[in-house]
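for the record, two folds in this file. i put them one after another cuz i was lazy. first one right below, seq on top, structure tokens after. the second one comes after a little note so u can tell where it starts
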Amino acid sequence: MTHFLEPEEVDYPLTTKEGWAAFVAETIAPPVVLPPAALQRLPESERAEYDQAREDYHSQLVIVSTPTIRHVAATGRKRILLNRHQHSARRGLIVSGPAGTGKTTAITQLGKNYEQLGRRRGEIQPKSLPVVYVTVPPAATPKMLAIEFARFIGLPLPSRYSQVEVTNKVCDLLCTLGCRLVLIDELHNLDIGTRVGAEASDQIKYLSERIPATFVLAGVDVEGTGLFAGRRGGQIASRYSLIPTSPFRHTTADQHGAWQSLVATLEESLRLHAHRPGTLLKLSSYLHDRTSGMIGSLSHLVREAALDAILDGSERITKASLERVDLDESAEQQNLPRARRRRTRNEKRTA
């Protein structure tokens, strides 16, 4: 007989109650940077562990409190309070904007902060499930959406169950578990122009009526998907406030200041031995040019450069090391001369 060993630690996705609980409980503690003398005395095995801890830290880095995160947090908290005693027509939020502008980070931080605060205050019972986070699958049907909720809860469902049966099981259990905030991401996967997509949109509305929770939705440029058009769209528009997200601008003095504050916060979070403080701040205009003001691209750029600095032993980030980082194609195509240089460099590597 073959025996399979259970892994010591399962990495559950955020779209499960186990993954969400780990996310809520997670704290990112910056590792202590040892002075040179102490570093030299470390045995090889301990040095490897020390570097591994810094690599893990820089792979996550800090969550910067951007204007979008603050706006979603403040507005979301007020919506939850307003909906506390509403029996129907509860008000929600839709966060919409280009990819890489911090939508997912904003709504998940809202959920994390709400649950942490509620548990500290004793407003949330220990065995309750106050927050649900799901993503809309491609070409989603109403039944598929209900199954995503069931998967988050860990609710086993026979395949023979109909859409109505799945939906009823999910709604009944979430009411019992005290769900108060529902986060639905990747809303742009709903194709409202099709019958199935329109019915899936109706399913979200139905779930929001059955579950006494505040619904917060997020997606890429959802205004252009037809979500607010027609009779269905009118109902959504009458209950949801839209919070748009966008790249950081870099024209006015205030915009320069906001971007520099973001860069400075990221730089202060670095745990590298030879990095010169202020280097990234001096490169703030270059960083905006490289990333087109996209916070997702900026985070990627700084984190990968920090990892390179540890792996190659340089222990610092410079403009040259930032240039060696390949960003997402959307960011790279904003600077066509650099995109051409990158393509030439890659071709030489593979020649």
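(here's the note) second protein begins now
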Amino acid sequence: MSAPGLIRSGWWVAVAAVVPSALVVTLLLRPPDGSPARARHAPIALEPCLVDPGEIVEAMARDGLAALTSPAVLTPTEVARSNESERGKLLVPSDLVIGVELGGQTRAYPLRLLRWHEAVNDVVGGRAIAVTSSPLAGSMAVWDRTVDGRELSFGVSGRLLDSTTLLYDRQPADGASSLWHQLSGEAVAGPAAGRRLEPLPAALMTWADWYRDHPTTTVMSPDPGSKRLYKRDPYHSYRGSDLLRFPVDPLPPAGPLRRKDVVAVVTAGDVDAPFALRDLAEAVGSPRGTWAAPIGDAVYLVEFDAEAGSVAARPRDPQTPPPPVRVAYWFAWYALHPDAVTLP
């Protein structure tokens, strides 16, 4: 496969597993200036920059992974019908989905599809949202994409900070796009630097569990142009080791948590409470269970399956709004919060 083909397909991750990262970036992943992906959009501004610009890695071409906007959706019946008729299963019970419930509407975004897009601009329950994922950081987050009264649309910039995807806004206010951190929701460079997206309630659950709790859910349909890619998982070996392919600073110190232990971050008001799924499993004596966690002024029930890597949270008091939940590898969260201590 040619270098441009590697970039378009996302196979740069697989290549990075056997070739030193710097060489990959230099030889394969930096597109020529004036490429179609660059010519379609406003330039990405790196000033002002809230981080050291040298820490931002250009890992592939802008839009090397194609973010989606308002994708078609399927009903659970249509998913089951597709599973029967297609050679490859669209969605099996153990597949993880990012679940969103807003304004009385529910939707599931299969993680197997999202790893080839990393951002989906959608509307659920009348709310303009960005459903985002960064497979290198093991992270997912759902954001309100309305900022200062403007509805933004996000694409994949091809750049990383601490091995986490940096998104860019496609409708810049002043002719230049900003870079937005997928996990923190903060614009780290460009005219929007310092502004933050609002996190929204979400869950990372198996399809079986999400469908059980939300039988009227819709499901993001596969992008017709990407079906060939969906059958591949270039992150399989990456998930199975503690090796990182791009610079991260700071890294968590050696301790009971491994770099790629899965951490769920439950946000209540101004409080971000990180829970390592492995710690929760040890606390309840089972890989699957529920942990009651006081966060801010309320108690939240954190439901998890450490083996599946799934987690959701709900308030004990039904009058309390559901909390935003983000998921990430421990190293990615620690790079943002080096003073973080996981609970319980």
